[in-house]
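Class, study these two lines:
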Amino acid sequence: MLKQIASLAFICSLLLSCSTSQKINTLKPEPDDATPLVYENTPSFINLPISVKLKDIENKTNSLLNGLIYEDNNIEDDDIEMKIWKLSPITIQNENLVSGEKIKTVLPLKATIKYRIGTKTMGVELYNTREFNLNGIITLNSDVALNNWQLKTKTELKSLDWNESPTMTVFGKNVPVTYLINPAIKIFKSKIESKIDAAIEKSMDFKPNLLSALEKICTPFQMNEAYESWLRIVPIEIYSSPAKLKNDRFLLQMGMKCNMETLIGQEPETKFNADKIILKSVLKIPNQITANIVAVSTYQDASKIIRKNFIGQEFGTGSKKVKVQDVTIWHKEGKMVIALELLGSVNGTIYLAGFPQYDDRTKEIYFDKLDYVLDTKNKLMRTANWLAQGLVLKKIQENCRYSIQPNLEEGKKTMMSYLKNYSPMPGVFVNGKMEDIRFQKIELTKNAIIAFIKVNGEINISVDGLK
């Protein structure tokens, strides 16, 4: 009887041991130092057309020039004292001339000019001072050029139409002196021209507007919340073609040379630095834009995405099955190591290794020649041969794929939403079109998987007006 009980106990313990999960202890392939997280990024080009209404220039010029717009009280330096007042708002229009389009400025003004004639001989001053009173409308034409972020003008006085006959004060009375004053216009002609140039130049300093717009545009924005992907634009240089007048606007065609990066994980810091942006003059800005986007996925973030593929999945046959509880990936000797933490018929962590590749058809990053690392394979062959078999490995490999199709589609969709009159700030609008996104290559670094993507299309960031 005792023998029977002992035999029964032995059989029960044997059955129990067969149904109990097996423990597997494998050696972890420690990560090594891959190339540091420094990679060559091919620059992209974005159009930056700037459109400024002449009405905006007119409004800003009028706000800068009010009432007494010029005063020179020193008669000793050039024998002239001068005061000029603006009588009513200045108007600025496009003047289409045979020589080209220019700015036409109409300035209603009045002026008081003291003009001293005479000499100083042997310490004796022999001067005769005359005071002229002017009231009229001055018309000026200005050529336009771009210099150091500003639209600058070269203004010439073209005509002066008197509202009242010019007068000269004689014995306290205003005496008409039209025949005298017309030749004397050159006295203050240069003063008026330089004053208009200075006012327009100040009103046309678009650098603060452009840099504010660029700072907004270069602030990383989230492209996909689920994949935690962000687009970051890092400007390098700004190109500008000659400014042109068209109808009621200034048109300034600019382009931005920049690096475009897609980063996965937490919100990245901006790399915008206004002090490092260089403005260069060119004759023409290309319309077709090539965006070379770098997609940076840290191993930690890639592990998180792959981990989702294993949720609810069981691997094995019959009673011999395992579930993946956690996934971690890293780099070692040019390969990706994938650590799978198992629970089920086998408990423990197994390690696979393979080369990351890209499947252009499915838009996935997968691992070519994925196999168990040597120590893991040896342990499985001894303790859980069924798990080491090719069929199970193939099923596991199918889940070790990092699909970027949603990233590409969502990225394109999100970017398109930013290319349909998106306005990051008043007066700034982003428009454009995109063609298919093309994958270029993959590079491994110490900390991340780097994917290089090329996009053709057009991106226009227009600055409309001056605020």
The first strand starts at residue 22 and ends at 24. Residues 420 and 431 are 5 Å apart (CA to CA). Confidence is low (pLDDT under 50) at residues 1-19.
